[in-house]
Amino acid sequence: MRSQSAGPLTTGPMSIGEFARLSGLSIKALRLYDVSGLLPAAEVDPITGYRRYAAAQLKRARRIGVLRRIGMPLPVIGEMLVLSDAEAVGRLDRWWAGEEAATAARRSGHLWLRTSLAHGDEPERDYPVRAVQRPQRKVATIRTEVDQQGLVPAIGAAQWSIRAHLDRHGARHTPEHWVIYHGLVTPDTEAAIEVCVPYSGSAEPGRDIALRIEPAQSLACATVLRDDCFYPRITAAYQAVHRHLTAAGLVAAGLPRETYLDHWDRLAGDAPFAHVAQPVEE
């Protein structure tokens, strides 16, 4: 998306008001995008502070406007604007897949609640719990803080940022990734999560990407289907794991996590999608 040629009707420097009219962006938005670096003014009068824009900036401005209208956050727009058009297509598709997954989770939550209100609570689902041994692995991670509403988009954004970083270093990775919960994420409170992508080969840390060794560990896991992977239904899997630990006399040895087996848009609704897992002492 580096190209800024737009075929505008005017070729000379434009005032912020004229540029706002031609680009479809408000003057307030243009000032914000100038300060943030997304769309710096071509000229700023050193005495008056008046901004002037070039006609060649219209294409970039219109793209920013479209991306904002579909709900893309400013940091992601910033990432896209430094990419070539071909690279930006992939970044756009990855972000949109995350948005669709979040929308699907909200839709499932609505259906669950509506059914519960109209017909009574559904029978509690049975989530068998099994022991899984995980080998030591290298992981690239991003840690961030989110609430329940922002959880799915945050997971998607983090894992794709990690994957792009690993690709740049020539490291190999599979669709599997997991999220470690450092606190309780609720609709009303934020907590820290750590998104992890295992990889092989070599890589370097990034600005917000850390590299570490995930030790070998024993996990108690409950498998959740894709269409059941939404709040509050997924809490039944956590309850099943907790009951299993209590009944078996197992001791938790780490933070709870959700391991995702593949990308959301690649699986059918009745396919295994995630493991709700608790590390335990051996």
Strand content: 15-25%
- What coarse outline follows from CA principal-axis ratios? elongated
Just give the CATH class of the largest domain: Alpha Beta
Rg is: 23 Å
Number of domains: 2
Give the class from helix and strand content and strand pairing: alpha+beta
Mean pLDDT: 90
Q: Please tell me the CATH architecture of the largest domain by its name.
A: Alpha-Beta Barrel
CATH homologous superfamily descriptor of the largest domain? Regulatory factor, effector binding domain
Return residue spans where pLDDT drops below 50 for at least 5 consecutive residues: 2-8
Helices, by number, come to 7
Task: Compute the separation of the termini in Å.
Answer: 52 Å
Keywords: DNA-binding
Protein name: MerR family transcriptional regulator
Organism: Actinoplanes teichomyceticus
GO molecular function: DNA binding; DNA-binding transcription factor activity
Any descriptors?
single chain, 282 residues, alpha+beta, Multidrug-efflux Transporter Regulator, Chain: A, Domain 2, Multidrug-efflux Transporter 1 Regulator Bmrr, Chain A, 2 domains, nine-stranded antiparallel β-sheet, three-stranded antiparallel β-sheet, disordered N terminus
